[in-house]
Amino acid sequence: MKNNKNELPRDDATSDALEQRVREQTLSLEKVNRELKQEISERRRAEQQLIEALHEKDIIINTVQDIIIRLDADKRLVSWNREAEVVTGYSAEELLHADPGIFISGEDLGKTQTAISQCTREGYGYVEAALDLKSGDTILYQWAFASLSDSENKLVGYAAVGRDLSDRIEAERQRLTDAERQRDTLVREVQHRVKNNLQGIVGLLRHYTHENPQTREIMETAIGQIQSMALMYGLQSRHSNDDVLVLDMVTAIADNAQSITSAIVKTINGEFDEDLLAISAKENVAVALILNELIFNAIKHSPCAEKKQVLVSIEQRDNGVEIAIENIGDLPESFHWANGKGCGTGLTLVHSLLPKRGVSIAFNQNGQKVRTILTISSPALVQSGITSGSETGQIVA
Questions:
Q1: Chain mean position to CA 291
Q2: Distance (Å, rounded) from C-alpha 149 to C-alpha 73?
Q3: What is the number of alpha carbons within 13 Å of residue 335 lying toward its C-beta?
Q4: Around Cβ 62, how many Cβ atoms within 10 Å?
Q5: Residue 300 domain-assigned?
Q6: Is the pLDDT assigned to residue 154 strictly greater than 80?
Q7: For 95-150, what is each residue's pLDDT tens digit?
Q8: Residue 20 falls within a domain, yes or no?
Q9: N or C: at which end does the chain have fewer Cβ atoms within 10 angstroms?
């Protein structure tokens, strides 16, 4: 009985210790449960945010007007945005697992593959390549490639963004058009002022000739040369390009020679494309001076009469345009145009002005008349759209 009395307190102590341990475990479990609930809540919230972020990403990717694609490590299409289907015209079934050759071909495909290879080495690559649409049309695109790697830095694929360059090309074209228009305006203004200044010089020379009649012959030559240049600048300033129509040039210079010398200079126009054939901007001033000298030379060497007469005719030939200048007279026996023998000051000037290509001169005795033939061909002769408003000239074949 004594031992039993001593054991009862030990049972009460054990019970109290057990209850304490239960309470501690319960509190610990409650804490763990609260933390677990909080962690689950945070994870659900993070998952929801991830879902929303992915949804926003999909909206953005499918809203932008750029083409966005993803290739696998074998360079096959695995995903793309809506714009890829809209622009190329290919369906999802046609695009899935296709290689870039489905919408990039020829030389551009080689450049694209080079850009992807660069991307493999350096992490990025850029290329401009024409996008071949299913319809058969093409659009120039700028592509930016980036390599994709996993957590172990192993290549898993490529991402690419393609941007339509049509707007940029159009903006650049418009910029160049505006710059060219501004340049043409400035050039025409300069040409107009040069013409006015040359005409001012002509006026001074005419006044000097009137005061000093003994200088008339030499001054008429100088006045004709300067006036020819003034006429060319005046004709150039009328149009957006600097080409001058053959008919305009011949008529203006012939009329000018007639007004200066009082000779009869008659112009006859044969059958030719008077609204298309023009002297190139590079050569028209030189050709004008040459024609002026040839007409003045014909007038000078025509026999003295009450009225000297010179006939200027224009004909279109297979090799270009032929301008013939006829006057009564004889070629001196000592005259030899090719080597410059017997050429006076005026024809020596013509020799020095003669372009290396596209302009030739021949002198022939035709009965009692001297016939000077000025032949103009490519590249001095161009096909110009001046009357139809064209901005450029094409060389006549």
A1: 35
A2: 10
A3: 13
A4: 15
A5: yes
A6: yes
A7: 999 988 888 888 899 999 899 888 888 888 999 999 999 999 999 999 999 999 88
A8: no
A9: N
Measured from the Cβ of residue 219, the count of other Cβ atoms closer than 10 Å reads: 18
Residue type (1 letter), 332: P
Peptide bond just before 379 cis, omega within 30 deg = yes
Choose the final residue of a domain: 113, 141, 164.
164
Q: Which residues of 93-119 are buried (b: 16+ CB within 10 A; e: fewer)?
A: eebeeeebeebbbeebbeebbebbebb
Last residue of a domain, one of 164, 199, 221: 164
Interacting residues of 255 by C-beta distance below 8 A, sequence separation 6+: 265
> In this structure, are residues 202 and 224 in contact, taking their beta carbons and an 8 Å threshold?
no
Cβ within 8 Å of residue 72, ≥6 positions away: 78, 156, 157
Tell me whether residue 11 is in a domain: no
Contact 376, 382 (CB under 8 A): no
How many folded domains does the chain comprise?
A: 2
- Whether residue 251 is found in the same domain as residue 110: no
Claim to verify: residue 109 and residue 187 sit in the same structural domain: no
- Residue 155 is encoded by which pair of tokens? 């290549």
Per-residue pLDDT tens for 352-364? 888 889 999 999 9
Query: Would strands 381-384 and 393-395 be described as parallel, antiparallel, or unpaired?
Result: antiparallel
Domain span at residue 364 reads 170-395
Identify whether the C-beta of residue 256 lies closer than 8 Å to the C-beta of residue 219: no
Closest by alpha carbon to 68, among 127, 135, 145?
Answer: 145
**Cβ contacts of 220 within 8 Å, gap of 6 or more:** 209, 260, 261, 296
* 230 within 8 A of 206, measured Cβ to Cβ: no
pTM over 0.70: no
The structure tokens listed for 325 are: 């200048």
- Token pair of 228 as six digits: 């020819």
Note the pLDDT tens digit of each residue in 214-230: 887 778 777 777 777 77
What pLDDT score does 76 carry? Answer: 92
Residues 224, 217 contacting (CB under 8 angstroms): no
Same domain, 241 and 355: yes
* Pairing label, strands 309-317, 264-269: parallel
Q: pLDDT band for position 187 (50/70/90)? A: low
